[in-house]
Amino acid sequence: MEENKILEIFLKTNALLRGHFLLTSGRHSDQYFQxxxxxxxxxxxxxxxxxxxxxxxxxxxxxxxxPAIGGIVVGQEVARQLNKRFIFTERENGKMTLRRGxxxxxxxxxxxxxxxxxxxxxxxxxxxxxxxxxxxIVGVGMIVDRSNGKVDFGVPQISTFQTxxxxxxxxxxxxxKENIPVVKPGSRKIK
Length: 191
Ligand code: ZN
What we know:
six-stranded mixed sheet, Rossmann fold, globular, three-stranded antiparallel sheet, alpha/beta
């Protein structure tokens, strides 16, 4: 299955790590995912994004739009494959907004792209912003859906990989019980 090939790429590029990790939330997990690690490689980005492009190939799209920063590489590549315009939103005083002279015309058909969706917060904000500008939302394409399909944007959506992050508090962590050293991803420090 195609999802296995994508998993293989995640593991090969160390985007998906397996072990014993301290997450930024303070909870422990047996896996850690850093999408930027896979997006370092244009050939992998091209292959993975082609799954999103393929899904939306029969949809009429004017513009691809992504929330900064994570979604930019994904949106740019999807837009390149579709040969459509690409823009991104950024947060300004906490609000998701179009800057740099980017505009959306009334009735413009937009496809939203993101790297990783957990609760979908950023994507929902982009949808809201695009709708405020009078756009029609064609759909949402994401590389990883960490809600395991639970997040519903109310438009056609595709993720190239679905997973559910299982995390534990320090007290209940089975890996701690096995005395496996816990690693904070992104640093060499071992607690
Ligand atoms: Zn632990």
